[in-house]
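## retry 2 of 3
previous attempt timed out at serialization; input unchanged, resubmitting
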Amino acid sequence: MQQKLYMLCVEDEADVLDVVVRELSVLEDVFPIETAGSADEAREALKRIEADGDALGLIFCDHMMPGENGVELLVWMQSQPQWKPSRKVLLTGQAGLDATVKAVNEAGLSHYIAKPWDQDELVRVAREQLSRYVAERKLNPLPYLKHLVMDIVGDTLRASSASDT
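## retry succeeded, writing output
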């Protein structure tokens, strides 16, 4: 059976989380969406994904949340071998410079989107980041083809092939 490749959306404000999921739902036929309202809930979702033998291709994470903030969660993910390859996007309106620098330097941040965001940008970033994940992990792109950015997949695979020789 084909491994599922998930997106995880972490946002403590239910209304905002609903909007993110609704806007990303155009990709859900290929990339299922998990949601979490906190870092602890995100870890539970990650445990479920891992227990099912599936993978996390992309996380959209808010920064300001009760308890552990989003950057701390992303830094933790970067330290875990099974989650390090996941593409990480900070989707926030409140991360200061220090938090953003920490996310870039310590969490392997793939992209930053400021709130409020544009739906087209959100979907474009998701498609680009998932394409990079598929290509970098050298996954068979066919099951995901409908939503991949083929230029990214092709360029990444060509670059990888050239470095292998």
